Amino acid sequence: MSRLCPKAAITMHHNALDQAICEALALLRTTAGPDLAVQAEQARKCLAQAVMADPDAPQQALVHIAAADDHLEYGELMEARTLLTAARGFLPGRRAVVAARA
């Protein structure tokens, strides 16, 4: 029976939060258009669900995600993207790849 070391368990645990940040970043690529508000709201919901599922994530990551949510509420996409990118840096382990632009 194999056991995960604590570091591996933490990395796997926060992988869903990292993936949610990547999904939010992909949603926020659009800089104009009628779907902008819809995409920002989808990103907010995605992040909120991930944070609720991972309350033990590093505090600095959660603070950055909360600040990004505030910026998304007001349509400030660049600020939100910057904060989400910084939040990823506080998560341990390997990072998911942000989807390429279509």
Automatic annotation (TrEMBL):
Domain of life the protein comes from: Bacteria
Protein name, UniProt field: Tetratricopeptide repeat-containing protein
Organism: Lentzea alba
